[in-house]
Amino acid sequence: MSHSVDRYAVMGFPIEHSRSPEIHLNFAAQMQQALEYTRIEVQPEDFSTALNAFQDSGGKGLNITVPLKELAWRACLQRDEFAERAKAVNTIRFNADGTREGFNTDGIGLVRDLTKHQIELPDKRILILGAGGAVRGILAPLLQQSPAELVIANRTLSKAQQLVSEFEDLGFLHAVELNNVGKYAYDIIINATSSGLYNECPNIAADAINSHTVIYDMVYGKETAFIQWAKTQGATQTFDGMGMLIEQAAEAFRIWRGVLPNTQNI
Ligand code: ATR
Asked: What's the pTM?
């Protein structure tokens, strides 16, 4: 099958609410490039078939979202450093020679969004809430920024400890239970738990926050219970995950198309 415009898509389940098509089509318009970008709903058991079908039909690249990122990692024999560390792939590039390359742009997206808001990470004390796939995807790019320390707090301590053992060669990292984050305020707190999706708030001590603490919730599209609570504790700088979504998309666009779109006016 031949197509006149380069074709891209996002695969996941569920996928109907994905904002990726409008973001990428916005980038394409800005760069005056013609491309197609669609949503494809794929269950984990169908991923391998769907991936092959998309590649065989001449597709140029995919974004991969929940719950397929680990499967995508396994499906790509060539992977970049961040994907390798995350054991998860959110961007695939299909090369002319038939190879698939896997990338993970989530952590780059988070770091760029923070930087865009003039939030510098070197020498900062950072607290991350959660220890699931979302955290695995951001640790290497965060540690590359040389924070003074990075604490991973999770309800289930063993999962945080596991991440520490995998990433501690990259920087000063340690694990605590969610109810044991310490008595001193952090510079930056990143909520990477899925609590916001269920209107729940991770239960951390109010001492972790003061008026200078930057609060970042990776959930987007609503003010989460965590952001609301942080505000009542005096936080004045709060962000949701929309900026990260846009920045990770921009990096995927660069990987596919060779140019980094401007994200200022999205
Ligand atoms: P994801 O890929 O989004 O990270 P996940 O791997 O299912 O999803 O991980 C969800 C994370 O959110 C976990 O760290 C989970 O804590 P546990 O490991 O203790 O289960 C965390 N989480 C979810 N709801 C939470 C809540 N209400 N309070 C605190 N942590 C919560």
From this structure: 0.96
